[in-house]
Amino acid sequence: MKNYVIIGNGTAAVGCIEGIRSIDRDGKITVISSERHPVYCRPLISYYLEGKTDIERIKYRPENFYMENGCEVIYGKSAVKIDNGKKVILLNDESKIFYDELCIATGSDPFIPDFDGIESVGDKYSFMTLDDALAIEKAVSKNSKVLIIGAGLIGLKCAEGLRDRVESITVCDLADRVLSSILDSDCAQIMQRHLERCGISFMLGDSAAKFRGNTALMKSGKQVDFDILVLAVGVKANISLLKDIGGMCGRGIIVDDHMRTSVSGIYAAGDCTECTDISCGESKVIAILPNAYMQGKCAGINMAGAQEAYDKAIPMNSIGFFGLHAMTAGSYFGPEQNGEIYEEKSEDKIKRLFTKDGLLTGFILIGNTDKAGIYTNMVRNRIPLSEVDYERLKKSPDFVSFGAEYRKKKFGSVV
Known about the structure:
This protein is α/β, with parallel strands linked by helices. It has helices at 11-21, 45-50, 65-68, 130-139, 153-162, 185-197, 240-243, 289-303, 372-381, 390-395, 403-411, and strands at residues 3-7, 28-33, 71-75, 79-83, 88-91, 96-98, 101-104, 108-110, 124-125, 145-149, 168-173, 200-204, 208-211, 215-218, 223-225, 228-231, 235-237, 253-254, 266-268, 273-277, 282-284, 316-321, 324-330, 340-345, 350-356, 359-366. A hairpin with a 4-residue loop joins strand 20 and strand 21 (282-284).
């Protein structure tokens, strides 16, 4: 009977557990969880702050998930070292866990710049975990002035969650636009205007240079007084466990299509990994929930002795702020990269489809995301434009555009 160990207790760990159990119903599974909560859906913590959900409903799996899958969960402890020769994991309380098959699913941690005077700030928080949300909820009041450093997805979701709980919210970022890693300038302007109408203030192209108590001295020379500071500058993949034993790492742990690392007998999955983005062919960290689950499931199946590959990873985001929804996927190639762009645009809506070398490589949709999954399917499966009615598809996504042969293969009949 195999002894499986998973380091981490997020979405990738769930995928790994379910992958293992799809092949092996008897092996022992041990999950090492640094958090003290059962697995939950991290993107929902902003909705918890907003009062749209509660702790029970943000659980990613039911209460009996671990028991039904025969898992032992070690809560509140962290792995600090792997001895792959002896196949043993040392925990932070100096206890040891032995394994036959190991998956590292350690996710990522907030990146906290070394701001001058940051230690003088009283109420400062990250916004990545349920514990972060609970701490912020306890700290804020209707009179709180909140400064959020970082206009990416984490910072803006925190702003959305807090808007009706506090007096004011200011978001700053060195980038010149919101969601700079996801949206281009025109698309970002649409989202920023909407957020500003909803009461969020921005200082873009500017950030804190130093802190003096609850005053941020900005790079521009301006000063911002605040009661609550949220640091949402970015994240970094937790790679140290594998890197410390000589495993190949870039920004994340390098994995192949079977989720194997460079160290024999060790797999990795989720936000701590670096894999190939098939929309552009580059190796990168793709820190999104669907990718984490699919990587975890692939790892679990292979750990249990079967053969499975996951080679369809693409960046993908489905987000919304105060009722305005956006979906993005893939890579954006403009004319300067020998790509082409199809665009439909109005004041508060935009559709951009990016094509290159006869493929749909990516898209940005704001305001109308209906049937966006059809575009995602094309990007993920690299369906040639020559096999679809692209003129129809780019204006109105539907499966009729895919032709009778595709529909018969996909659905078993021509529909």
